[in-house]
Amino acid sequence: PPPPPPRPPRRRAPGPPAARGGRRAGSVAWLLETAGLPVVKVEGGYKAYRRWVVRDLAEGPWELQVVGGMTGTGKTEVVHALAGKGAATLDLEGLARHLGSAFGNLGRAAQPTSEAFGNACHRVLHGFAPGERVWVEDESRRIGSVHLPEELHARMRCAPMWELERTDDERIAHLIEVYGEAAPESLAAAFERIRAKLGGADTVRAVDAVRSGDYAAAAAIGLRYYDKLYRHTQARATRPAVHPVDARGKTAEAVAALLCGGG
Questions:
Q1: Which of 33, 102, 176, 260 could form a disulfide with 193 if both were Cys (CB 3.0 to 4.6 A apart)?
Q2: Buried (b) or exposed (e) across 132-157, using 16+ Cβ within 10 A?
Q3: What's the pLDDT tens digit per position in 228-261?
Q4: DSSP-assigned states of every residue in 100-150
C-alpha cells in the first residue's frame, strides 16, 4: 500500500488576545528604550488605563466650576482669560477642536475620536492638585462630532455655574466678531443644518440675511433658537447654585478677574 500522507506540522495554540497584545507592547517598549526614548509601561495595559480615566472623570478630586451663559456671552474667552491669570481650566472646545453648535467648525478642522478626547480631558485634569477648583465652559453632550464623556458631563451638570449676562447687542457683536470672517456659503450651510428646529421661514430669512451681508440680522435669528435651547437645557440641570455675573460692557479679562476674586 502507498505510504500515509505526511502529518501537518504542529502549531502552537495562540495565547489570549490580551497576552499577545502585552507581548507586542513589551517588545515595542524595549525597542524604544534601546533607542534612548523614555517609556512608561502601564500595568494592565490600555484597558486598565481606560478604567482609570473613566473612574477619575466620575470621581476625581477636583471641584468643577462651570462658566455658563447664553450664546454670544463670550464664555470661551473668559475661560481663556482665567487660564491667563493662572487659574486651573479645562478647555473642552480647544481639546475637541470645535466651538460647539452647528457653527462651531466652519473651518472643517479634524476632530479627535470621542475616546481620545476623553483621555485628553483626563490628562489635563490629572495635572491639577486634588481639591483644586477647575473652570470649565458649559457644554452639551456633544461638541461637534465628539461626545463628552458621560461621567464628566454628569459632574458638570451638578457643579455650580457662573452665568454670564450681556446685552443682546453685545452678544450679536461678539458672534459677528467670531464668525464674521467665515465664507457666506459656510454660514448659510450651518443655518440649513438646524432648519428642522429653527423652522423653514426663519432659516430662509437667516440665509437671505447672510447672502446680503446683514450678519447682525442673521445672528439675531440664530440667537432666538439657541436661547430657547439653552433655557430648556438649564431647566434639566440639577445645580447646587447658579451665580449671575454681570459681564455687560466688560472684557473677558475683567470678567475673569471678577470670578477669581469672588468665585
A1: 102
A2: eebbbbbbeeebbebbbbebbeebbb
A3: 999 988 888 888 999 999 999 999 999 999 998 8
A4: SSTTTTTT-PPPPPHHHHHHHHHHHHHTSPTT-EEEEE---SEETTEEPPH
Cell digits of residue 144: 461637534
Q: What grid cell was written down for 106?
A: 466652519
- According to DSSP, residue 44 is labeled T
pLDDT digit string, tens, across residues 126-174: 999 999 999 999 999 999 899 999 999 999 999 999 999 999 999 999 9
pTM for this prediction: 0.83
Q: Are 62 and 128 in contact (CB under 8 A)?
A: yes
Q: How far apart are CA 210 and CA 212, in angstroms?
A: 5
Residue for grid cell 478630586 = 61
Tens digits of residue pLDDT in 4-25: 666 655 555 555 555 555 678 8
The DSSP call for residue 212 is: T
Cβ–Cβ under 8 Å, residues 79 and 127: no
- Cell 466650576, located at residue: 65
- d(CA 233, CA 157) in angstroms, rounded, equals 10
CB 127 within 8 A of CB 209: no
Distance between CA 143 and CA 141 in Å, rounded? 7
Long-range contacts of 233-240 (CB under 8 A, 24+ apart): 233/140, 234/68, 237/157, 237/158, 237/161, 238/157, 238/158, 239/66, 239/157, 239/158, 239/159, 239/160, 239/161, 240/158, 240/159, 240/160
CA distance 116 to 156: 19
Using CA atoms, how far apart are residues 62 and 217, in angstroms rounded to an integer? 42
Q: Output the nine-digit C-alpha cell for 58.
A: 466620575
